[in-house]
Amino acid sequence: MVLYNLPYVAVVVLTIIGLGTIVLKQNLIKIFLGIMILESAVNLFLVSLGYREGGIAPIYTNAPDRVMVLPTPQALTLTSIVIGVATTALLLSFAIIIWKKYGSIEIGFLRRLKE
Amino acid sequence: MIPAFVVENSPALMIIVPFVAAFIAPFAGRAKPAVRALVVGGAMAITSAITLLLASDVYAHGTRLYVFGAQAATLAVPQDSGGIPVRIMFTVDPMSALMLVITAIAAFAVVIYSLTSERHHSGLGSYYTLFLLMVTGILGMVATGDIFNFFVFLEILSIASAGLIAFRIDGGVAVEAAIKYFVLSTIGALAILVAIGIYYGEYNALNMALIAQRMQFTLLDQLALVLIIAALAMKCGAVPMHFWTPDAYSMAPSSITALLVVASQASLYGLFRTVFSLYNITLNAACVGWLIIILGVLSMVVGVTMAIPQKNVKRLMAYHAVSQTGYMLLGVGVGLAVLDNQPLLEAFGYMAMEGGIFHIINHAMYKGLLFLTAGAIFFRIGTYDLNKMGGLGHSMKWTMVFFIIGALAIAGIPPFNGFASKLMIYESVFVFNPVLSVIAMVVSILTLASFVKVFHSIFMGPVLPEYKDVREVPGPMLAGMGILALVVIVFGLFPSLVVETLVAPAAHALADQGMYIAAVIGGGA
Fold it and tell me: Shortest CA distance to B93 belongs to which of B55, B150, B137, B47?
């Protein structure tokens, strides 16, 4: 039972690590890493939803007559990973501009909007 | 007159046209900027035309389905699928159609405006790519009938918006605003994805109608509901998750801000769609209704009080946008609170919902107009600082007229459209709870006070020496503002016509979950 739920435990742990990183860290790159960890948590959650114990890959041609894992969550995860790449790329390019303009990527320097 | 192919495939075409044009635009710009202007303007005109065509068709003939990859576009449930809609589909009901109308009008006005206002800036190839992707995202979000598809379009919209908010780097300040917006929307989108995972795990479905039919409102569903409400309320800028709004709205180019308003409304649509179409009466309507009402009242009050001391005209308008979003949440929240009580719903619930939904379309028009006038002022004098402005009424007469129209509409003065929708909200909410109605009126008065001040400091007074040579903005920018101003006036003069033809069907479609499900599961029959 514990073993079966292990992915979900991992999801919770990753979520906590991710959120903690986003909230507590001062460095922009580390905050972005936190977001990526959070993304991995969600992806893991989606994939574990579709897992069936002892299931095989859901490829119908010539498949033996056995339980298959669900294909849809895998498709969702794939899409989500692609979106995650775009997100990360954009965030990192923001970090580059901030570094060029301010000479630092610590959050403490990002206070010009506050006035 | 219009080919049957276009009518039949309009839901797909309205996504494909801006999406393809988005990636043609940079190459067209290589040849000549005029070619790019032609491509972008033409694509947007075609998109708006198709969108309006689709919307009018939905209003005339009821909910339209568009099933991707099926033998027939309306074949939601294939014969061999055992009664389950397996394909990705667009479900365009009157509520979606209303959002389509808003997007079509606003995006078209914005594109006309920005073809001139952005002419002298660099990097326009990517500007229009992101702009058209934003339009694609908004249209997809409001049209889709598949909840994962909703997430994908939401992310397209977020990424494109974040890129555009940071577009004028502005010494790094605009990038700060974009980081704030994008970190929040990514976390929000992940929350929505978790909710989608929960739905899939429970109901084996991603189709909204099928989830709605199977909805049990278990503990997990409540968790998913909380995740979705939190994420989408943040995306539409409701207090207490509004803090990205003033930064993002003020740092984005003005034409983009006008579109960001529409993008916020699309998130609001997602919120209403989830609450009404997915859950409807299975949830504790009074409880969630009051939650939305409280979000609304907080947004109204906090938004307007934060707006009054602002010195930057766009930050001020952004706080007013937060405040106006509160009206929509209030109106629709009241409708939701009495959803399980048919007599009360008939008595004032529908009217409150109609008021809230009418305010969505009105807000997109007058707020877009106001942001465009702020952009016009910036175009000529290069500052948003209210203390540095003055006496512009002498030289920028048309901009002043458009600003007055927008300001009076947002303050709810007749005969402009803001009055029509606010009156509906006041009247119906007063029956529900007089205190809420009084708060709404006070907020409206404060809004008026704030805009009188802004109007005075921008346009009144003697001509300042440094702005002696300021001229009116070019014609196309005035045309963009003029479209929105025209809509504001027409909607204000004929509110009952608009409510009957556009808004009431939308409100009823939203409240009637059975119709939404039947349109899909009933095989389109």
Answer: B55
Distances (CA, A) of B409 to B297, B325, B450: 20, 14, 13
Residue B440 token pair = 């709404």
A64 CA: distance to closest CA in chain B (Å)? 22
Q: Where are the domains of chain B?
A: 284-493
Handedness of CA B389, B390, B396, B398 (dihedral sign): positive
Q: Which of residues 75-94 of A touch B (CB under 8 A)?
A: 76, 79-80, 83, 86-87, 90-91, 94
* A68: DSSP letter: B
ipTM: 0.93
Task: Select the CATH number that applies to the domain covering A6-52+67-109 from these four: 1.10.287.3510, 1.25.40.10, 3.30.160.20, 3.40.50.1970.
Answer: 1.10.287.3510
Q: Which of A31, A42, A73 sits opposite B190 (nearest CB)?
A: A42
pLDDT at B274: 92
* Smallest CA–CA distance from B88 into chain A, residue: A72
Q: What does the alpha-carbon distance between residue B452 and residue B342 come to, in Å, rounded to a whole number?
A: 42
pTM, rounded to two decimals: 0.94
Joined together, the tokens standing for residue B82 give 């055992």
Q: What is the DSSP letter of B474?
A: P
- Cβ separation of A94 and B148 shorter than 8 Å? no
Domain residue spans of chain A: 6-52+67-109
> Where would I find the beta strands (DSSP E) of B334-393?
none
Residues B450 and B75 sit within 8 Å (Cβ to Cβ): no
Q: Residue B524: which pLDDT band, with cuts at 50, 70 and 90?
A: very low
What the block records as the tokens of B36 is 């790019």
